[in-house]
């Protein structure tokens, strides 16, 4: 019978002590391969962490995604879509810019404190903006020119409506602060009327000689004073 070569070879290697050394070498090689894989995984993780810590690498992508989601929610979905419809950002800016400008003008010219100014400016801007957008969208079916003209008319009407709401809010604010429930212009008018009445009273008393130490110049020159 032929003697199997593999068992004989294995037995020979075992007698010479080569088999144990070979097994040890193979185990060491496996360990090196495993260590290299672990180091490689650690290197990838470190690179990802470094990228996340550098502005504009991973963080910039997340910020852009969040900004795009907010833009979609405000302008293209839900309440934004109901208000702005299919208008783009440029169209929205063109429609709202005049209303914001007149709102700022109303805030700057309104007398009173900062609360009165904010109420007047906010009511004018919001009323004009919403009124213009509502009529503009309603007339969009007739073309862009008709929509723009309707937007202007709606802005004027909405501005007047906003002023009425703002006046109501200012009267409520004045009442809460212990006043007579007046708007900023009504308070200014009352103050000016009181000053004018006091001025007339003083002039009348001075002319009639009712104020001690003051003589009427006409009477004095005529020898009557």
Report helical residue fraction. over 70%
Number of domains: 3
Low-confidence stretches: 1-23, 28-54
The value of Rg in angstroms is 43 Å
Strand residue content: under 5%
Termini separation comes to: 164 Å
Compact overview of the structure:
The chain has nine helices and no strands.
Write the layout of secondary structure elements.
Layout lengths: L4 H12 L1 H36 L5 H18 L2 H6 L4 H21 L4 H25 L5 H33 L7 H24 L9 H5 L4
Provide tags for this entry.
3 domains; mainly alpha; elongated; single chain; 225 residues; 9 helices
Write up what this structure looks like:
This protein is an all-alpha fold and 225 residues long. The protein folds into three domains: 35 residues; 96 residues, no CATH class; 32 residues, no CATH class. The protein has nine helices and no strands. The protein is elongated and about 85 Å long. The N terminus is likely disordered.
């Amino acid at each position: 019978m032929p003697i199997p070569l593999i068992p004989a070879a294995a037995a020979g290697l075992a007698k010479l002590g080569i088999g144990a050394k070979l097994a040890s070498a193979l185990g060491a090689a496996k360990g090196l391969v495993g260590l290299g894989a672990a180091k490689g995984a650690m290197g990838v993780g470190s690179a990802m962490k470094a990228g996340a810590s550098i502005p504009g690498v991973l963080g910039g992508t997340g910020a852009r995604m969040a900004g795009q989601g907010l833009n979609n929610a405000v302008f293209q979905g839900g309440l934004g879509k109901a208000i702005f419809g299919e208008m783009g950002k440029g169209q929205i800016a063109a429609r709202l810019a005049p209303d914001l400008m007149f709102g700022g003008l109303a805030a700057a010219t309104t007398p009173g404190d900062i609360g009165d100014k904010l109420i007047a400016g906010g009511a004018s801007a919001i009323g004009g903006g919403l009124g213009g957008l509502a009529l503009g969208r309603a007339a969009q079916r007739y073309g862009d020119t008709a929509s723009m003209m309707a937007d202007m008319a709606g802005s004027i009407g909405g501005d007047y409506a906003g002023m009425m709401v703002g006046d109501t809010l200012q009267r409520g604010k004045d009442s809460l602060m212990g006043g007579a429930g007046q708007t900023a212009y009504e308070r200014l008018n009352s103050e000016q009327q009181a000053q004018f009445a006091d001025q007339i009273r003083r002039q009348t008393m001075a002319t009639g000689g009712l104020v001690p130490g003051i003589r009427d110049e006409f009477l004095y020159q005529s020898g009557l004073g």
